[in-house]
Amino acid sequence: MFYSWQGAFVVLLLCLNRISPQRHRLPGDPVDEEIREDRLEDIPEEKRGNFFKVGEEVLALPEVLSNLNFQKKEFASKENLEQQEALRKGAYWGRLYIHNFPYPIQYFQAHFGIPAPKGLRELVFAADTYLCPDTPQPKASFISEHKAIVVALRGNCTFGKKAQVALSLNASALVIVNTEQGLDHLAAPDMHDIEVSVVSVPRDDGNSLMRYLQSTDGVQGSLVPINCATLEKAYTCKPCTVEDEQFVTSDIIEGGYINFAGAHMKFEYLLSQFGSGFKPSSYDIFLPRNEETKELSEGCSNYTTPTVVKQKMVVVRRGGCKFIEKAKYAEEAGAAGLVILNFNNSVFNVISEPRWSGLNITLPVLSASNICAESLINQYRKNKENMKIQFESSKIIKRKKWGALNELANVESWPRSIGAAKTMFDQKVTEVENSIEMRRFLDDIWINILKKSDAKIEAKSEL
Fold it and tell me: pLDDT tens across 153-210, in order?
């Protein structure tokens, strides 16, 4: 019995020795033949951590603390500029705001590098797409002179190598476009303290930005760090500093003016919140006609003569189908862009629902009012062969302003007392005094309020 137990014990020791885990190389360990025989696939996936494989050798990255602080932070007061600046430097995400681009792009700050640069910057797409070492960069002097933000696609070399190239170009920041869905806080332990800001943006948003930069020179934007916290009893996400908030609300370009031969005024337009970036310029124009009504088409079907549409700014009426459908039909016909005209005197915000449905639209989409429609249609009938339409961007035209005015179109939102309503109307008139179209639309609203008031008086007199 004794010998049987002793033999079993020896066998057990031998088995334990054979299945004991191999030791993997840590920083500072010598690389010997035993470690070279390690296999990455032998390490359980949940324990791989910083292990990676080079040839047949399994190595481990050194543990490097992130530059980012993910702890919740309260907003600084408007007067405390020092605290605002500290909040900005500690932000781990934000939004890239771009002039004449449909929407801000969310970004994640990398674990390495420095905080996002301040102010408006030139945006430049990397000449080799990936911004890897030993590739020519024809815009190197422009990037250096303007301390531009360089945009590059993920892949072909490490994040650290891309950051090194960006730094060598004297870029203020590097935006890395992801090649798959989602966002990452990128890591480069070997470049932890590199003096350039590095952020990542989602694939589809980034692809739209890259297309815009490839087709348009002089694109400008700003990386705006965002903080989220409870503010006045509501959970709010907004820029960390008053300076950045001022830029977002007042300085970013979201629209402008439309002009054409024979127009009696300039008409306002808004850039939609889907589609591509827009280059304000002069365009040939095409107004499709509904063959049944002989009126301006709503653009809800295939264009029968795409060659007539190609590289022209197509103008259609609102209604009949979703905005995204109008854009797809114009895009398939090769249009340079799409303008959707409203059926009342307001300029409206064009969106795609759900948001992702508009991410792959590759032409710019704009909106304008019925005031513009009436004049544009009349002039087109007179000279459709040679007519051009001119776009001029402006910081004055804002989605938020037009959005607030469109909400007032619901007369139920106004005070019931005609006296109180008149006081509110007079106040709104002073707010829109520099916009002819806003004033016209406000007058339309006031007429509807008076009609409703008269209807109530008449109803009471009949009782």
Answer: 999 999 999 999 999 999 999 999 999 988 989 999 888 899 999 999 999 999 999 9
- Checking if the pLDDT of 434 tops 70, the result is yes
Do 103 and 231 have their domain in common? Answer: yes
Considering the domain architecture, whether residues 369 and 456 belong to the same structural domain is answered as no
d(CA 383, CA 84): 56
Domain that holds residue 26: 22-63
In the predicted model, what is the mean pLDDT of residues 347-357? 90
Tell whether 391 and 422 lie within a shared domain.
no
Query: Taking 60 as the threshold, does the pLDDT of residue 12 lie above it?
Result: no
**Quick one: 100 and 154 in the same domain?**
yes
Structure tokens, 424: 């509110």
Say which residue, 327 or 63, is predicted with more confidence: 327
Asked if the model's pLDDT at residue 463 lies above 60, the reply is: no
d(CA 410, CA 350): 19
Query: Do 247 and 262 sit in the same domain of this protein?
Result: no
Place of tokens 């024809």: 138
Domain termination site, one of 200, 234, 251: 251
Same domain for 264 and 310, yes or no, is yes
- Rounded distance between C-alpha atoms, residue 23 and residue 172, angstroms: 43
pLDDT at 116: 97
Count of domains forming the chain: 4
CA angle 81, 86, 89 (to 5 degrees): 125
List b or e across 32-46, with b for residues whose CB sees 16 or more CB atoms inside 10 angstroms. Answer: eeebeebeeeebeee
Tokens coding 425: 């109307």
| Statement to judge: residues 305 and 380 lie in one domain | yes
For 121, 124, 211, 453, the CA distances from 129, given in Å and listed in that order, are: 19, 11, 11, 62
Contacting residues for 99 by C-beta, under 8 A, at least 6 apart: 219, 220, 221, 252, 253, 393
The answer to whether 338 and 316 have CB atoms below 8 angstroms apart is: yes
> How distant, in Å, are the alpha carbons of 172, 251, 281, 392 from that of 273?
27, 17, 20, 18
